[in-house]
């Protein structure tokens, strides 16, 4: 029997399997990031970055990220999104967040907050690492980790910006049924 992974992970059986595997627990804060390729599930890390997690959660619940493009995608490094202008210069109307740097490693599937040269300038833009980026440690805030669906992030078209950028179709907290 062949299982369509996208449907499996999105199903109750898939969620139960994730919970049973230890990849996620019932009390974990999870985000569903939907692209045209499928659903990526991100486990938020309030233990590392409570202010960043709170900001991302607020923006997700407000549906801020729906339709926003991946404006900077560098193969082997990361895919960046979260700018409503699509230029890499935009942000939400919420205040910037103070840095919450940690010793957490930037590895494949690590979700970090983008910022300008000013450490306390993070707002709405974030990136997902395609591979290790250890030089970012203690300089950028880690706020999550991909726990399923990284293969869909791998399919995002590259470019700075991509000629025809992929979009976030929908980004919701896992407990949000809208």
From TrEMBL:
Q: Which GO terms describe its molecular function?
A: peptidyl-prolyl cis-trans isomerase activity
The enzyme's main class, written as a single word, is isomerase
Which function does this protein serve?
Answer: PPIases accelerate the folding of proteins. It catalyzes the cis-trans isomerization of proline imidic peptide bonds in oligopeptides.
Q: Which family does it belong to?
A: Belongs to the cyclophilin-type PPIase family.
**Catalysed reactions, semicolon-separated:** [protein]-peptidylproline (omega=180) = [protein]-peptidylproline (omega=0)
Lineage of this protein's species? Bacteria, Pseudomonadati, Pseudomonadota, Alphaproteobacteria, Hyphomicrobiales
Q: What is this protein called?
A: Peptidyl-prolyl cis-trans isomerase
Pfam families tied to this protein: Pro_isomerase (PF00160)
Highest taxon, organism lineage: Bacteria
What EC number(s) is this enzyme filed under? Answer: 5.2.1.8
Residues forming the PPIase cyclophilin-type domain are 34-178
């Amino acid at each position: 029997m062949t299982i369509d992974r996208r449907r499996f992970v999105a199903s109750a059986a898939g969620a139960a399997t994730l919970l049973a595997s230890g990849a996620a627990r019932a009390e974990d804060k999870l985000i569903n990031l939907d692209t045209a390729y499928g659903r990526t599930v991100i486990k938020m890390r309030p233990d590392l970055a409570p202010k960043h997690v709170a900001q991302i959660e607020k923006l997700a619940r407000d549906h801020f990220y729906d339709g926003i493009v991946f404006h900077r995608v560098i193969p082997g490094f990361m895919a960046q999104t979260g700018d409503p202008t699509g230029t890499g210069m935009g942000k939400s109307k919420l205040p910037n967040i103070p840095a919450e740097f940690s010793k957490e490693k930037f590895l494949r599937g690590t979700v970090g907050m983008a910022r300008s040269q000013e450490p306390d300038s993070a707002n709405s833009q974030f990136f997902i690492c395609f591979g290790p980026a250890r030089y970012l440690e203690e300089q950028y805030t880690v706020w999550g980790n991909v726990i399923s669906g990284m293969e869909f992030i791998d399919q995002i078209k590259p470019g700075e910006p991509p000629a025809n950028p992929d979009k976030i179709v929908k980004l919701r907290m896992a407990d949000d049924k809208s």
